[in-house]
Amino acid sequence: MSSKDTLSRVLLVKSWQEKAYDEIRPLLFQAFEDKNYSIRSAAIQVFGEIGNKNDVDKLFPLLKDPHYEVRYLTAETLGFFNNQQSISYLIDSLDDVDEVVRLNSADSLGKLKAKYAIPKLIEKLTDKDELVRGYAAEALGVIGDKNTVYALKKALLTEKRNASRVRILTALFKLGEESNLSLIIKMLNTKSYRVRCATANILTELSFDNNIDGLYGILEQKLKNEKTVAVKSTITRCLKELASDN
User: Fold this and answer.
1) Domain range enclosing 166
2) Which of 35, 68, 83, 141 is at a distance of 20 to 30 A from 219, taking alpha carbons?
3) Residues 200 and 172 reside in one and the same domain
4) Is residue 223 in a domain?
5) Gene3D superfamilies, alphabetically (predicted)?
6) Cα dihedral 171/177/180/182 (nearest 10)
7) Whole-prediction pTM
8) Are residues 205 and 158 in the same domain?
9) What is the mean pLDDT of residues 131-153?
């Protein structure tokens, strides 16, 4: 099949999200088994937009798909639906060979408040990929079990990568260690523009009535001094979000 034919089919599948779910439900399930991974991926994205949590079991086999894109989209999509059946499958996917699959699995387990996943998420604090370590930490923070504070502090002592450190600090903040906010703010000055972008997004997420004005001022000042376009764009968007919340 030519790339043009594939694109036409992908666009057709994506157009289904404008239809009623019950109308295209059988077509989606059929697309999940298509030989072309692009079609499978498009169908997963449509399910994420209009699917029903009672049908998420149709996605479980796709976590073992031979193509990494299908697996990471599936891991992400399972986090959109509050179906506890997904948890054991996502825990297994924390050991996927692809790092994006692992971090999406961790993120989804956090969204599902999956306490059953805590031991495995703690194990992933030593994953070989820095973002997986960070997302595992954030998931622990979202789940909210204060018994994980010790494991997070231990991970922070040995973590050398700021992309992971900022997320460990965020998890600790969410678990009541509010003194870590100042350390998160300092991450706005790291050398990595990606970490600076992530930090701006995290600070926006951590804004509350008692600190929103202070965080707005910090980001506003950072915007004046920032030279990287990607970071400036991120901070500008974050400031708009904070202004709308205030």
Assistant:
1) 82-176
2) 141
3) no
4) yes
5) Leucine-rich Repeat Variant (1.25.10.10)
6) 130
7) 0.92
8) no
9) 97
